[in-house]
Design brief:
It comes from Pacificimonas flava. This is ArgI2 arginase. The protein has one domain (about 1-80). The longest helix has 17 residues, at about 65-80. The mean pLDDT is about 80. It is elongated and about 50 Å long. It has about 80 residues and is mainly alpha-helical. The protein has helices at about 1-5, 10-15, 25-30, 30-45, 65-80. The termini are far apart. It is built from 5 helices and no strands.
């Protein structure tokens, strides 16, 4: 839910605090940092799972979903034996 709130998807009471929402543009929420964080976690050998709790493609034009999927795939490819 935190990602939903900062990107403006949620109740306006929480997503538009003092008229300043969204705090982060959806296209900036899935960025290169995701891939870097995943690579570090996977390289540590301590990563045992990944949970994606909410993603609704109807709330965006598809570009965020593609960036997310590409970052996830690239990180997992580098961790493959």
């Amino acid at each position: 839910m935190d990602l939903a709130f900062v990107t403006g998807y949620g109740p306006s009471l929480l997503t538009d605090i003092e008229g300043c929402g969204p705090l982060v543009c959806p296209e900036d929420a899935v960025a290169d940092e995701l891939g870097a964080a995943l690579r570090v976690a996977l390289a540590s050998g301590k990563a045992v799972g990944l949970e994606i709790i909410i993603y609704n493609p109807r709330l965006e034009d598809g570009s965020v979903g593609r960036r997310f999927a590409n970052a996830l795939a690239a990180a997992l490819e580098t961790a493959a034996p």
